[in-house]
Design goal:
CATH class of the largest domain: Alpha Beta
Strand order of the largest sheet: 5-4-17-16-15-6-7
CATH topology of the largest domain: Rossmann fold
CATH architecture of the largest domain: 3-Layer(aba) Sandwich
Shape: globular
Structural class: alpha/beta
Largest sheet: 7 strands, mixed
Number of strands: 34
Number of domains: 4
Length: 730
């Protein structure tokens, strides 16, 4: 067998790790390994990324378009025929019910393809429908809400390389590989390098995570207490006078309101409520605000998926504001953006509150964020009758039934649709419910551009990279690049599509390189030249600096009326440390969401090597909790919330604090078909979207979920001298 090595980059998740790929004489993948010469990731590649050959040739990969039959089975169908039928059905629905009756859900499988990342969004815009959804609004949408209410510093935060401290709330970048405030590429190496340079680290997390192992100060609170802790840190900083007085005087318009709002959150109160030590809280505030002068506070899915996520994120970013942790005029910018360049300016854009303009959901009145509706109302937009009811959905690159909260409601919604189309390469749970499944190419079968959507915060160098297709789809397959499916559908329906504001030719189909060329048109190098560079281009010859701004352009609003109300509600709450009350019930544990390297949400679970390491998603508990419950690792339990319950197998984890159980999300099969030991369990069955939604972004309670742990009664074997079987609690 003749093997050839090619260079490319992985698109399993956001870091886009540089890799070397072995292909055979038929251009089929043989092996993927990290590329030590890659300027961006320096040889790093995670386990799931190295399994690309198994992913490309997986048993559940769909290689030809499929159509559901009345008996629920699927038959192969030619793409052009399928598109004819889909276009006819969509046109009929639009004619009878209007464009608002058609919606779309765009997932990670779409976003990680440059040519296809926004094609569903632009398709819906051309159709005239605002029913555009994605995981953005159930992941970390509180970040958008926070800057929408605070205001935006147009100069950006202080760079990682210039930082002497980092403060992390509920984020584990060494595993998630997706932190916008740390290095997602080769993060462990970056952590060691920054620590060697003297950077201090403060970690606040219910688990002593891989990141927390490097921390100078570690606080281990109960999940969901991030607003309390952030307010407590602000209380100490303002009480001690450690704020950046000049920055606050110039750029904060309501400093006295902020001081009054955090006054109740003294260290003793915060310590009792959050389950931490008051001295540790003080030490954290001192290290961040007094002993260090550069570097920011940041959060991840922990605070953003927990109750009062908007308030938590608002207060965390307010810590950065009062300490002035933003790049100033003359500071060097590590990456101003190459694909989407910007000019950092030292001034505040006043709170834009985007959601107050434009389309509002008919369900709860929630608005739009960056052209998207809130995923918390996705199922209700389908189930609720009336004008604007969604009757057809196109799902692009998402296992929406597994990632959406309130899985039973989501199931009812998808099953009620007149038409469900999945642009999807695998027979996942959502595909099984679809009327049509249209498979696309996988990452090494298509041309692509490195992650550009958040390049200036995800990549800490002015770097961009193109890759040509490295391999061919399996013989006999009928797959196309995803964007082609929606372009052909638009052509049939008479829609005009745009990519990055540029109109596409709707008569003569463009190529994937044409699409990528539009996206890369601002790169300071001709696209044809960029394509020749198999290691990408690093534009570090020129230095970039924050430009002077106008101090009178605007100020931060740290305590607008709605935030003032929210923080007052928290301060007035009755609390019982370590316990939770929800929907009139009492709970002894809180379930927190957990990230693992081997899968990306629901993607990758069925890769054989991944499945061998992770056959299901265990429930991790502190060993002392296992003893108290009378159970041990490997025993079965039920996890019960006020909405539903799921089975689990427990695993002892000394990194967990007591009273907390953690599980990965997006596992499990379809309800009624799940075998836990084979599929795992879906934590979304524990979540309701009928209540407990944060205002503005309709964010469900997806972490810090109040639960009880119920040991499963297992009958013991009868011995020869026993008269009857007995049951023991294990």
């Amino acid at each position: 067998m003749s093997l050839r090595e090619k260079k490319s980059f992985c698109r399993f998740c956001s870091p886009c790790c540089g890799v070397r790929v072995l292909v055979d004489e038929n251009d089929q993948l043989i092996e993927v390994r990290g590329d030590k010469d890659d300027v961006h990731t320096r040889g790093y590649a995670c386990f799931k990324g190295l399994q690309a050959p198994a992913a490309h040739y997986a048993a559940d990969r769909i290689l030809k378009p499929l159509k559901r039959m009345p008996d629920g089975s699927f038959v192969e169908i030619k793409l052009e025929t399928a598109l004819d039928e889909i276009a006819a059905k969509l046109s009929a629905i639009k004619e009878q019910h209007g464009p608002h009756a058609i919606g779309g859900y765009r997932g990670g499988g779409a976003v990680l393809s440059a040519s296809s990342s926004n094609i569903l969004t632009t398709w819906l815009q051309a159709l005239g429908s605002p029913k555009n959804f994605s995981p953005i609004t159930i992941d970390q949408s509180a970040k958008i809400v926070s800057v929408g209410r605070l205001g935006i510093w147009l100069g950006g935060r202080q760079s990682l390389v210039s930082s002497d401290v980092r403060l992390f709330f509920g984020v584990n970048p060494l595993v998630s590989l997706a932190s916008s405030d740390f290095e997602p590429a080769n993060p462990t190496k970056a952590m060691k390098e920054m620590r060697a340079k003297g950077m201090k680290l403060i970690v606040i997390d219910p688990r002593h995570t891989e990141t927390a192992q490097y921390a100078d100060i570690f606080l281990q609170p109960y999940p969901g207490e991030d607003p309390t802790i952030a307010a407590g840190l602000l209380h100490i900083i303002l009480r001690e006078g450690w704020e950046d007085k000049e920055f606050c005087a110039t750029y904060v318009q309501d400093f006295d309101l902020l001081r009054a709002a955090v006054a109740p959150f003294n260290p003793d109160y915060v310590a009792r409520r959050a389950g931490i030590k008051a001295d540790d809280l003080f030490r954290a505030a001192s290290l961040f605000a007094r002993e260090c002068t550069r570097g920011g506070a940041a959060s991840g899915t922990g605070p953003n998926m927990a109750p009062r996520s908007n308030l938590a994120e608002h207060l965390i970013e307010t810590i950065n504001i009062v300490c002035g942790r933003y790049a100033r005029a003359g500071d060097e910018v590590s990456n101003p953006g190459i694909v989407i360049p910007r000019t950092p300016t030292a001034q505040v854009l006043p709170a834009p509150r985007w959601w107050e303009q434009g389309h509002k959901s008919r369900i709860d009145g929630s608005g739009m964020m960056f052209g998207e509706m809130m995923s918390g109302v996705f199922a209700d937009e389908i189930l609720q009758p009336g004008e604007g009811q969604v009757r057809a959905v196109i799902v692009h690159g998402s296992n929406v039934i597994n990632v959406m909260p309130d899985q039973m409601k989501t199931l009812r919604a998808l099953q009620s649709l007149e038409l469900l189309v999945s642009i999807e390469p695998y027979m996942n749970e959502t595909a099984k419910l679809s009327d049509y499944i249209l498979p696309g190419t996988l990452q090494y079968e298509r041309a692509d551009l490195s992650n550009f959507m958040y390049e200036e915060v995800m990549v800490h160098k002015p770097f961009v990279r193109y890759t040509a297709p490295i391999s061919k789809p399996p013989a006999g397959s009928e797959v196309v690049d995803d964007w082609i499916i929606l372009w052909k559908l638009a052509q049939r329906m008479g829609l005009d599509l745009k990519v990055d504001g540029v109109s596409l030719d709707m008569v003569n189909m463009p190529t994937t390189d044409d699409i990528i060329g539009i996206i890369a048109r601002r790169v300071p190098m001709p696209f044809e030249e960029l394509k020749k560079l198999d290691m990408g281009a690093l534009f570090d010859a020129q230095k970039y600096y924050v430009q002077p701004g106008d101090p009178s352009a605007g100020k931060f609003t740290t305590m607008p009326r709605d935030v003032e109300t929210e923080i007052a509600e928290v301060a007035a709450e009755n609390f019982n440390p370590g316990f939770s009350h929800s929907n009139g019930q009492h709970f002894n544990f809180r379930l927190s969401s957990r990230r693992i390297r081997d899968v990306h949400n629901s993607t990758g679970r069925n890769i054989p090597a991944v499945r061998a390491r992770n056959p299901f998603n265990p429930a991790y508990l502190n060993p002392e909790d296992l003893i108290a419950l009378g159970i041990k690792s490997g025993d079965k339990i039920r996890i019960v919330s006020d909405t539903g319950e799921i089975p689990a197998i427990v695993e002892a984890d000394a990194t967990m604090r007591r009273g907390v159980v953690s599980m990965t999300h997006a596992w499990g099969g379809l309800p009624g078909e799940t075998v836990y030991e084979r599929d795992g369990a879906n934590t979304n069955l524990l979540i309701s979207t009928d209540r407990d939604l944060d205002p503005i972004n309709a964010m469900p309670r997806m972490s810090a979920i109040p639960v009880n742990i119920v040991p499963v009664l297992v009958p013991t074997l009868r011995t020869h001298d026993e008269s009857e079987a007995i049951a023991v609690s294990v």
